[in-house]
Amino acid sequence: MITRTCYGCIHQAEPCVARDAFKAHLIGLRITSVKWKCLQRKTKFNVGDPVWVETYESYDRDAERAEFPGTVARVMGGKALVYIRPEARSRCEDYNFEASGNGFCKIPFARLEDRDAPREDICRYCCLPASFGHVEGYSCAIAKGGGAR
Ligand SMILES: [Zn+2]
Fold it and tell me: What phi, psi does 83 have (nearest 5°)?
């Protein structure tokens, strides 16, 4: 049994004392999936991390898959919500990212890789990296010094 809390944790594939102790408590309860707060949990990717994102260049049916530079905006279990800026150049330099909608994609950790770049602050309201600013007209942008950028 693997607990939901373990997805995305760097210790997921290893023996884990915290998980074993927790499982021992559950014996006999017939539980197959459970979410709990684990003090040992450490995710491979965290909010603000620069990453290479393996995804499609656009929503076209024949779109090519490539790695694009992104920033982790939120972590959800073993997946991350990443932001890729419009027209971002792929790692192989063959494609430009065609942002569909707002540029956010939900990507499993397995399709992310560390990217050598400074960490970024992420806006807690619109989830955009500091280097990009805020969503135009969004209240978080207006609050910071009058007028949307
Ligand atoms: Zn914002």
Answer: -110, 125
